[in-house]
Amino acid sequence: MTIQAPINLEEFENAVHDWFWNATGLQTVWQRQSAPQIEYPFGTLLITSGPVPAAPGWERSHNYDGSRPLGQEIEFEVRVPCSFTVSCQAYVGKPEANDPTKNAMAFMTKAQTALSLPSFHEAFRAANISVIRPEGIQNLSEVIEDAFVSRANMDVIFGASLEVKEYMGYIAKVQAVSTQLGIDEIFGDV
Predict the structure, then answer these.
(1) What is the tens place of the pLDDT at every residue in 58-91?
(2) Which of 10, 29, 102, 103 has CB atoms 3.0–4.6 Å from 150's, for a disulfide?
């Protein structure tokens, strides 16, 4: 039996990508892409962990709807809150790499600040995710091929929910037979 996806990862990734791109103004790509590196400045995103369930057990619920097709009258749903950690990086080349108002740390500060704005919270809510917290910004600047590159990283922990539904039928009629107890009766729909 194949189950449905417990979370819409495309919607999750699109919401995170839109936040980072709009907050920083940097052309942003997911690190798993095999295309050549884009020109400086740019941003990258990578889901480094998740989903991590926030509880050991999943919440379970069920409901009955007789209007569903035969064998699918009972809907079972399991759900659990979870978290994802996304590594966000900004890369800035020369000459801006040495300018504290245009370097990677400046871009990451914009991204971090935007996580507190209501407009971004609304966009995340529409994608069924939330911001748990941003971690501290790390300065990862380095020399690459004889050129100084300003680089900064910030991990952001996002909240979401994993949910799966399945449908089953029910037994409408049962016959109980016991010679020892003297029972031979039909229970349920007769």
Answers:
(1) 888 888 877 878 777 787 888 899 999 999 999 9
(2) 103
Check: CB of residue 75 under 8 Å from CB of residue 101.
Answer: no
Residue with tokens 């995340």: 124
How does the average pLDDT of the chain come out, rounded?
A: 88
Question: Of 154, 151, 111, nearest to 136 (Cα)?
Answer: 154
Distance between CA 126 and CA 60 in Å, rounded? 24
Which DSSP helix (H) or strand (E) runs through 23?
A: helix 9-24
Q: Tell the burial category of 179 from Cβ atoms under 10 Å away from its Cβ (0-12, 13-18, 19+).
A: exposed
Rounded distance between C-alpha atoms, residue 97 and residue 127, angstroms: 34
Question: pTM for this one?
Answer: 0.81
Strand residue runs (E) in the chain: 27-30, 42-53, 59-64, 74-92, 130-134, 138-139, 142-144, 147-168, 173-178, 183-188
Residue closest to 113 by CA, chosen among 130, 134, 129: 134
The identity of residue 22, as a single letter, is N
CATH 3.30.70.1700 is held by the domain 9-188: yes
Tens of pLDDT, residue by residue over 85-103, are 999 999 999 888 888 889 9
